[in-house]
């Protein structure tokens, strides 16, 4: 395909007229589709329905310590759930505390506690003049909303194919004591699907922060969310690396079964050093008498262990893979060589990240909405909702049916072409 920029004004105008006709035709199909979030489809949710059949009789409600899961107790979670989530995120059960139904909730609480009570006895962040967080971009909008909510200044750090720009991270973390944290999605990142390289993980573990209360917020949301059997990314385990580097308290790992079982009704956990977990426990023991152990038990019984969980994830992959392929094949066929956008084909996770020509993302998202496709707001993948280049768009292929997705991708591609032509002609 000839790059659009090399086409004459007349050629572009003729193309535009034809594309507009096609756009009106697809618009007339009256699609009304919300693709703004990375939600599992109904078909995926069906996969875990048998979980609701577990625990039907009273004798099944005891965990392995003999405690009745219907009652209070075991603030850290039942041992078998700590083991399961430990295996999921590759740490030993002693380094795991099970929380409630959402890891994002735990991340919010962790920032909130640091603001009001400090980190392991240090000055509460709310008493400091300035608190800053590093935000690898593009990144997860809900991370950025947490730090924005607490008035924490966010600093963009560009993502590279091996993870965040580590020269910049090392420089900022080691020289500025106001930098207290960094948001990371280290495996199949949201939205690019990038997995941090071994070198990146090692550099994280060896950071020498200027602030003693600096922590890495390592959101391992997509740790077992592969799309392929034969093409998988591997992530070096960071807690172990931190320990080896003499920095055992540097990282909090967050994990949940939201996109393994049921989003909003899964189980979440934190993996961290003993010192950090004791800090969490101090707060948690005031906040709650215990989390939902019935749900923990249900998950353990349903998956039976990490092997069962991996098998279950393969069923998710079989549903998700064709959807990713629809988007990737359409982008390749329609846009390859046109030089009006770039994208990544991830090996796991929930998203495809698309970078349009500068200054086009907002207009593309608005154009797709005109034909009934609601995408994640342009800018959402950046702190404060501001993408300096107005270029990044997050595509979430999981929720629509295959037929809906085909049409939605067609609409997206037409929107990209039309907006890009306008941009070139302007
Ligand atoms: N972290 C990342 C990177 C996500 O993409 C999501 C959901 O999309 C979450 C966390 C939410 O996790 P939870 O449902 O455990 O709160």
Question: What is this structure, in a nutshell?
Answer:
The chain has 2 domains: 4-45 and 310-425, Aspartate Aminotransferase, domain 1; 61-304, Type I PLP-dependent aspartate aminotransferase-like (Major domain) (Aspartate Aminotransferase, domain 2, 3-Layer(aba) Sandwich). Helices cover 40% and strands 14% of the residues. The protein has 13 helices and 13 strands.
Polypeptide structure, described:
The chain is of the alpha/beta class. The chain folds into 2 domains: 4-45 and 310-425, Aspartate Aminotransferase, domain 1 (Alpha-Beta Complex); 61-304, Aspartate Aminotransferase, domain 2 (3-Layer(aba) Sandwich). It has 13 helices and 13 strands. Helix 1 runs antiparallel to helix 13. The mean pLDDT is 97. Residues 38, 102-104, 140, 185, 190, 219, 221, 256, 258, 263, 268 line the site of pyridoxal-5'-phosphate (PLP). One of its GO terms (molecular function) is L-aspartate:2-oxoglutarate aminotransferase activity.
């Amino acid at each position: 395909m000839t790059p659009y920029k090399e086409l004459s004004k007349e050629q572009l105008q003729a193309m535009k007229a034809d594309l507009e006709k096609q756009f009106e035709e697809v618009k007339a199909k009256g699609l009304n589709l919300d693709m703004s979030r990375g939600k599992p489809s109904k078909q995926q949710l069906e996969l875990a329905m048998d979980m609701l059949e577990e625990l039907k009789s009273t004798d099944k409600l005891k965990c392995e310590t003999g405690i009745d899961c219907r009652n209070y107790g075991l603030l850290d979670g039942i041992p078998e759930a700590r083991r399961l989530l430990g295996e999921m995120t590759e740490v030993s059960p002693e380094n795991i505390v099970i929380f409630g139904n959402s890891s994002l909730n735990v991340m919010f609480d962790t920032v909130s506690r640091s603001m009001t009570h400090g980190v392991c006895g240090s000055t509460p962040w709310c008493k400091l003049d300035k608190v800053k967080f590093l935000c690898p971009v593009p990144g997860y909008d809900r991370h950025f909303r947490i730090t924005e909510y607490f008035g924490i200044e966010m600093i963009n750090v560009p993502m590279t194919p091996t993870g965040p720009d580590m020269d910049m991270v090392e420089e900022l973390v080691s020289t500025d004591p106001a930098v207290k944290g960094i948001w990371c999605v280290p495996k199949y990142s949201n939205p690019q699907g990038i997995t941090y390289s071994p070198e990146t993980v090692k550099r994280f573990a060896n950071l020498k922060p200027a602030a003693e209360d600096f922590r890495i917020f390592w959101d391992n949301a997509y740790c077992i969310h592969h799309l392929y059997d034969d093409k998988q990314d591997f992530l070096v385990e960071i807690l172990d690396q931190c320990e080896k580097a003499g920095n055992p308290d540097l990282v909090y790992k967050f994990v949940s079964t939201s996109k393994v079982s049921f989003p909003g009704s899964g189980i979440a956990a934190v993996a961290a050093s003993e010192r950090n977990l004791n800090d969490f426990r101090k707060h948690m023991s005031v906040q709650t008498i215990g989390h939902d152990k019935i749900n923990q038990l249900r998950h353990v019984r349903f998956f039976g262990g990490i092997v069962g969980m991996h098998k279950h994830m393969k069923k998710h992959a079989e549903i998700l893979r064709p959807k990713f392929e629809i988007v990737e094949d359409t982008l390749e066929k329609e846009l390859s060589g046109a030089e009006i956008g770039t994208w990544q084909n991830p090996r796991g996770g929930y998203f495809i990240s698309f970078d349009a020509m500068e200054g086009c993302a907002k207009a593309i998202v608005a154009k797709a909405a005109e034909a009934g496709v609601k995408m994640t707001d342009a800018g959402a993948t950046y702190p404060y909702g501001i993408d300096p280049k107005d270029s990044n768009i997050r595509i979430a292929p999981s929720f629509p049916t295959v037929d809906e997705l085909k049409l939605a991708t067609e609409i997206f591609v037409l929107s990209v072409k039309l907006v890009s032509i306008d941009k070139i002609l302007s």
